[in-house]
Write a structure and sequence with these properties.
alpha/beta; 289 residues; 7 strands; hydrolase; 15 helices; Rossmann fold; HAD_sf
Length: 289
C-alpha cells in the first residue's frame, strides 16, 4: 500500500530499457515476439493515495486527522491487508476491520458511526485516471505479436473502478489479480501462475513454447521487479520521481534515507502523461509511438 519505497540502488539496478534484439530473435525463431506483463496502478493508470486519505479524513469529526501510517500499520500487523489483497477475506470483513483500526488510531468513541459504503468510497478514490498512451503502447506491442497481460495486487474494490477506466479483460490476453489467487506480488507463486497462463496463451495463439527470457514485466515497486527478475524475466522499474528530485539525486544532494522518504511523498512524483512517458521510454527500442 502507499507509494513504494525506492532507494538509490533501485534507480541504478532496476530502471532499464528493454533490448530490441531479444524480441527480434524470438520473433524470427518462434513466430511471436514475447509476452509483456503490466502492473496496473501507477503504470496503466494513476494512483493517488493522498486523495483517498483526504476522503478518509472527511469521515472523521471536525478537527480530527487521519493517521494513515498507524492505521495501515495496524491492518498489516493483523494480516488484514494481506488477506484482503489476496482474497482471503471479503469486503464486509475488511470494512469492519478498517473501521475498527480507524476508530482506534483516531481515538474515536465506539459509537461514532460511518458505514462500510463510506469506507469503500474513500478507498476507491485512490484509483486515478487512465494513461491513454500506455494503453496505446500495449496495443502496439500486441500488433508486433507480443502477448500482453496485467499482473496486479488490486483489490476487489479497486478492480471495480479500474474496469470503468480500462476494460482489462477485453484488451489483455492474460489478467492476473492477487485477489483471485490467494497470493500477491512479490510472492513467487503469483509469478509462477502468471508465467503458466502466459505459456498457455502463447501455445494456443502461436502454437509455440514461451521461454522465461521472452517474458517482460514493468512495475513501480522495486520488490516486485526483483521478484520478476528472480524468475529470470526481463523486468524494469517505472520511475516516478519528478525531475527536481532526480536532479538532486544526480548531484548527490540527498542521502539514502532522504531518497526513500522522498519516494513516499506525492509532491516528489509525476503522474498522467509525464509518468506515461517514463513507461514508453522502457519500450522505446521496441515500439515507437
Amino acid at each position: 500500500m502507499l507509494w513504494p519505497a525506492v532507494s538509490a540502488s533501485d534507480l541504478i539496478e532496476l530502471v532499464v530499457e528493454f533490448n530490441e534484439e531479444n524480441y527480434k530473435n524470438c520473433l524470427k525463431t518462434n513466430g511471436y515476439a514475447g509476452f509483456v506483463f503490466f502492473d496496473i496502478g501507477s503504470v496503466l493508470l494513476d494512483l493517488d493515495w493522498d486523495v483517498s486519505f483526504q476522503a478518509y479524513e472527511n469521515l472523521l469529526p471536525e478537527g480530527s486527522k487521519f493517521n494513515y501510517s498507524n492505521t495501515f500499520k495496524l491492518l498489516r500487523e493483523n494480516s488484514v491487508l494481506q488477506n484482503w489483497c489476496t482474497g482471503q477475506i471479503g469486503a464486509f470483513d475488511y470494512a469492519q476491520s478498517f473501521m475498527h483500526a480507524l476508530k482506534k488510531t483516531s481515538k474515536l468513541q465506539d459509537d461514532y458511526h460511518f458505514s462500510a459504503f463510506e469506507i469503500k468510497k474513500a478507498d476507491s478514490f485512490v484509483v486515478g485516471s487512465l494513461r491513454p498512451s500506455v494503453l496505446e503502447l500495449a496495443k502496439k506491442l500486441k500488433d508486433l505479436n507480443f502477448g500482453i497481460g496485467v499482473l496486479s495486487n488490486a483489490t476487489t474494490w479497486h478492480e471495480v473502478v479500474i474496469e470503468k477506466r480500462l476494460p482489462v479483460r477485453d484488451i489483455f490476453d492474460v489478467c492476473i489479480f492477487s485477489q483471485d489467487l490467494g497470493c500477491e506480488k512479490p510472492e513467487q507463486k503469483i509469478y509462477e501462475i502468471a508465467q503458466s497462463e502466459a505459456e498457455r496463451f502463447v501455445q494456443k495463439r502461436f502454437n509455440a513454447t514461451l521461454h522465461f527470457k521472452d517474458i517482460y514485466f514493468i512495475d513501480d515497486t522495486p520488490s516486485n521487479v526483483k521478484a520478476a527478475r528472480a524468475m529470470n524475466w526481463n523486468a524494469s522499474l517505472v520511475l516516478l520521481f519528478n525531475e527536481h528530485i532526480l536532479e538532486q539525486i544526480s548531484k548527490n544532494k540527498l542521502s539514502e534515507i532522504q531518497i526513500i522518504e522522498a519516494s513516499h511523498k506525492r509532491d516528489n512524483l509525476i503522474f498522467g502523461q509525464d509518468a506515461a512517458k517514463r513507461v514508453e521510454k522502457i519500450f522505446e527500442r521496441i515500439v515507437t509511438l
